[in-house]
Design brief:
With 516 residues, the chain is mostly beta strands. Helices cover 4% and strands 50% of the residues. Strand 7 (79-87) and strand 8 form a beta hairpin.
Length: 516
């Protein structure tokens, strides 16, 4: 009899308890799975998030809140054949079992009680276990899947948050990068001090950087020579995950991060990706970054999901995610609370998909600034859906320099967005000037067109809830406003809108009264 059950994603905070009989622990991305065999199957899992899975053999017992062991009593003919274990695009783990005995009492079940998450990784595991027979599951896994772990502790890493571990991390990375199968660099639980480091490719196979513990940045000014703290570059098929934390220690150095009034060295960005393709970043927390939390440049087909990026609302330049010269970037199911842009979409960005993001505090989701430099490229295809902002200075913003170089911004869709106490819920400004004085007598050469606002609702903390201040020489074209419901939060009457050089159409409910 063959059974097949989708278990959903399994979190990183899992421990497989060893037994005196044969067992194996397999960790991949944010997952950990243990299997033991002795005339049946025993699976035991512990996780801080609660029940994970249990029961592989016999009638299922009742699951307990923190752990559960399912055990098949010994049987002369007992045997289990694990045909396949895969983690793939369907979001989940599939385990197929062929049981070699009569199941008169009904088939076994395997239960999973955790929500799903995508890890684009395939592992095929073949195990045959009979009573009294020992099978080296890990050896078979390595042979079939080419999987190997590179624990930084084996390379001299020191936990405690005091000693720099950059060299130990690099040694582990370099060995993993040469592995022709599926390499996994593992940072276990604990606090690890890490000076600025570059993890570079190309590598010989797929590679994952699994952070289970906390990486702590240095606050020594002598380590600020790089613009990045942790930098991945020139890589294909990268996964960065694990449920761990990046501690930027920003509060100790933020006074150095104000370069508007005097020359200074910019502080390191916490996590940077340069020329990385087909990658996933998931289940990480970054807090108190010195500069931006995450930056992308020259990247293609990257997915970011289940992230928590946080810094105080008054922290300088702590953007959540900055995207430049990149294609098909997807950001979903994350919370971003910062002192600057929640997400900044910069020159050369195309096909940027933002879904189920919460912003606040901060400056909201921004396209730009654009046009300030001569080597910039068009921005095309930005889709922001099913998201919200609370207490931000801006909600949905497009900003270009007044004295700008020719550029185009087009195919922008904002849909199903909720604003709560946002100062400028909808704003296009083509006279961006962060450091006056600027020449406001010239008009922007950035052409904005085909921008749709659909089902935008909530409250504005300023009277002008909609501001479309476009260029006189390059007016905004094909602006679509459909079902806008923005009320003024507080005294002052009703919300209003303001337009300059904007051409478009409106549909459905319009509050405030439209100006196009």
């Amino acid at each position: 009899m063959t059974i097949e059950q989708d278990l959903g994603w399994l979190p990183s905070e899992m421990v497989v308890v060893g037994k005196p009989w044969q067992h194996v622990e397999i960790t991949d991305g944010c997952t950990s799975f243990g299997l033991a065999a002795f005339g049946g199957v025993v699976v035991e899992a512990l996780a801080k998030e609660g029940v994970q899975f249990a029961e592989a053999g016999g009638r299922p017992d009742r699951l307990s809140p923190a752990k559960k062991t399912a055990e098949r009593k010994q049987d002369q003919d007992a045997r289990v054949w694990v045909l396949a274990w895969t983690i793939g695009p369907r979001i989940g783990l599939t385990l197929k079992l062929n049981q070699g005995w009569d199941w008169a009492d009904g088939p076994p079940r395997m239960l999973g009680l955790i929500s799903g998450f995508r890890v684009y990784l395939f592992l095929f595991l073949l195990v045959w276990a009979t009573e009294g027979q020992n099978v080296n599951l890990f050896h078979q896994t390595e042979q079939l899947g080419g999987r190997k772990f590179f624990n930084v502790m084996d390379y001299g890493a020191v936990e405690g948050g005091v000693t720099d571990n950059s060299q130990a991390f690099l040694k582990a990375w370099n060995d993993a990068c040469q592995w022709r199968g599926m390499a996994r660099v593992l940072i276990p639980r604990g606090i690890f001090m890490l000076f600025p480091v570059v993890f570079s490719g190309p590598c010989k196979g797929r590679i994952a950087f699994l952070i289970l513990g906390t990486l702590r940045a240095s606050t020594e000014p002598s380590t600020f020579n790089s613009e990045n703290w942790i930098n991945f570059r020139y890589l294909e098929q990268l996964t960065v995950a694990g449920g761990g934390t990046l501690d930027g220690q920003g509060p100790l150095v933020w006074p150095r991060n104000n370069c508007n009034n005097h020359p200074c060295r910019t502080l390191p960005i916490s996590l940077s990706f340069d020329f990385v393709n087909n990658a996933t970043v998931a289940y990480l927390r970054s807090y108190n970054s010195k500069n931006a939390h995450i930056r992308l440049f020259g990247c293609n087909k990257m997915d970011f999901t289940k992230l928590r990026l946080s810094a105080p609302g008054d922290s300088p330049n702590t953007d959540g995610i900055k995207i430049g010269s990149s294609y098909r970037i997807r950001i979903s199911r994350s919370v971003i609370t910062t002192g600057d842009d929640c997400i900044a979409i910069l020159s050369g960005s195309r096909e940027i998909h933002i879904h189920k993001i919460f912003c606040g505090p901060g400056h909201g989701i921004s396209i730009g600034s654009l046009g300030g430099y001569g080597n910039e490229h068009d921005v095309e295809g930005v889709y922001v859906k099913d998201s919200g902002s609370k207490g931000t200075t801006n909600g949905l913003r497009i900003k270009t320099w007044a004295d700008s170089h020719p550029l185009k911004v087009s195919k922008i869709i904002y849909e199903n967005i909720v604003m709560t106490d946002v100062m400028n819920p909808i704003i296009i400004g083509q006279n961006y000037c962060p450091s006056p004085p600027c020449n406001q007598q010239v008009t922007s050469n950035v052409q904005i067109s085909n921008v749709t606002y659909n089902n935008i609702r909530g409250s504005s903390s300023s009277k002008e809830a909609v501001i479309l201040k476009c260029s006189k020489t390059s007016p905004c074209k094909n602006i679509v406003m459909n079902n806008i419901k923005l009320s003024l939060d507080g005294p002052g009457g009703i919300a209003s809108s303001y337009c300059e050089n904007a051409v478009g159409v409106t549909y459905g409910t319009q509050n405030p009264r439209p100006c196009i």
